[in-house]
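Consider what follows.

. . .
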Amino acid sequence: MSQLMLCSLGNSSNAGNDTNNNANTNSSMEDDDSYPLPTIYRCRAPIASLDCMEEFNSGGGGGGGDGLGNCGAVAGTKEQLLTNCIAAQAHRLQHPSPGIRYRNLGKSGLRVSNVGLGTWTTFGGVGGSGNEETAEAVIALAYDSGVNVFDLSEAHSGHRAETQLGRILSRRAWNRTTYVVTTKIYWNSKTEGRGLSRKHIIESVQASLLRLQLSYIDIVMIHKVDPMCPMEEIVRAMNYVISKGWVMYWGTSRWSPVEIMEAYTNCRQFNCVTPIVEQAEYHLFYREKPELYMPELYNKIGVGLMAWSTVTIGMVSSRTEDCGMSFLSRSSYKVKNKYSSFSWTEDETQSLYKEQEYGWKDKLVDEEARKYSDKFREVSALADRMGCSFGQLAIAWSLKNESVQCLLLGAANIDQLYESLQGLQLIPKLNASMMSEIERILDNKPSRPPMVSTLALR
């Protein structure tokens, strides 16, 4: 569709009508959060062609292309610009991903793709190779497929991941406005630079900027609350780094609803920038916080949901029988409270390495895995009938929840990422009857406890 659109621009006799018609079509499809049939996906023009339209309509001019398929404006005639845009379009369509949509994160104006790339496994986490060339191929595939969110964390692969991503982004030289980088500040009681003090937050942001070789970070998330640091100090420090232009937005990760509300209240009290997103675990077997409390936080204070799970982050085997035990053993059944499950700390990531290398397993976790293995097998059988993998079904199921504005995927190689992206095409197939069948199998739909009247307690 986008090539026909560009060709019509070159035809002077039909330029006015065709441009208006195609612009209206693309605008309505871009803003539509519904999921039409897969055939419509293949006709949808990706972001690159829309950027080309803006450059073309502005009449060309300065700036050079990066030689990697991006359609930056180049000096020359409109015919040259048209040729470059068509080449960029062909490059972006090399790995098409039907189902990519763009939504506002929380109630902010930041537009993010409905799936993002969680880079823990990409940069050498559990199952990852740690090879920078492989990581660059994964990131390039994600970007070319329309994914614009790249998530990092100080607590996962740490400083090395930020350094490698910085080198990749520098080599690729993509337009900075076309992607969103998120990272997390993590407090660790085992190091000297611990806590969420103003000093630690500012120094962490400055260090991340140097490693990423960026002038700003789009979103910085606070990874867990430091019980020894006043909330006022945290929100004032985040407001400071935003006012300096080092950070555009801030959010939280693994915070309880009470903690998020406390941060919001402090922001309002001290006239600070409020958080826009909470990053939380969400999958078929962990549903309470994302389904009960995050919609409420979104409606009341505008905090959106960026979700991840042990399936979508790429921590499961490709074989179904191994996938079940691997996923269940790392899911939220060892949760200590109902708001925060898998903690992603160094202690637990080290335990994953031990399990992978030495066969070490927790007996309690094994019991929980056996308890839920029957449900897993039934969902896997349903996925087989639909002609997809368990992971693809889990991705599509998670995105059926309208509260999930961005779901983080993980991949150690391009094959894993491509397979995960194909799961987006399942979303139209998950109709009401199919969702009811999944609910019947899971039998774990969360519900709020009944209200207890204080009069009844007297």
